[in-house]
Design brief:
There is one protein chain. The protein is mostly beta strands. Helix content is 0%, strand content 55%. The strands form 2 sheets. Strands 2, 4, 5, 6, 9, 10, 11 and 12 form an 8-stranded mixed sheet that branches. The protein has a 4-stranded antiparallel sheet with strand order 1-3-8-7, with no helix packed on it. The radius of gyration is 14 Å and the shape is globular. It starts with a strand and ends with a strand.
């Protein structure tokens, strides 16, 4: 059974930085597309950043140039370095894992972590 444990959230002021971590177990980590999502009250959950099995990264326009996603397959850990934080980055952040099956990434089989809260004050 896939388990994802996110950590590293907290409260910072505008312009501050945080590093989120997501430790995975119960899966062959290197065979999963990994991503960070966020959700704030009253809003849809949105993908913030993702990283494929070959290390290709993708970012939401709102975080490009400020956030960096990375993975350490030896440690089964996903990271999100968040710099120049803004109040609009305030949200619960979730990590997600999509397995590759039949050569394609399967979002239908996605697993979610429990979330870690990020609060940015002005």
């Amino acid at each position: 059974q896939v388990q994802l444990v996110a950590s590293g959230g907290g409260s910072v002021q505008t312009g501050g930085s945080l590093r989120l971590s997501c430790t995975a177990s119960g899966l062959t980590f290197s065979y999963y597309d990994m991503a960070w999502f966020r959700q704030s009250p009253g809003k849809e959950r949105e993908e913030v950043a993702g990283i494929g099995i070959l290390g290709t990264t993708r970012y939401a326009d709102s975080v490009k140039g400020r956030f960096t996603i990375s993975r350490d397959n030896a440690k089964n850990t996903l990271y999100l370095q968040m710099n120049s934080l803004k109040p609009e980055d305030t949200a619960m952040y979730y990590c997600a894992a999509d397995p590759y099956t039949g050569g394609t990434c399967s979002a239908a089989l996605r697993s979610w972590g429990q979330g870690t809260q990020v609060t940015v004050s002005s």
